[in-house]
Amino acid sequence: MRQLLSQKQTVDDIANRIGVSRRQLDRLFKEAYDTTAKGYWLKVRLGHAHWRISNSTLPLSRIAEEIAIGDVSYFCKQFKKHYGLNPAELRRSSQHF
Q: Which residue has the higher pLDDT, 44 or 7?
């Protein structure tokens, strides 16, 4: 999944790529990570975005593109849901004086 970060791959595409059904992939992720493959995939993508926001001045639109989320408002909504703060708040708190 980390290698496919910037590609618009669905969980179904990933399941097909490794030769298992979507349902089987979800079962494997649930056992290993206590989440679905889709939930894990979003967590990986948002983790990368968190790092980029904290360590760069790239615009949010560019960071959203990097993790294959085309809609910046959807990206910000998911980011806040996952981390409890929006990307702008994280960027302000990450700035070094």
A: 44
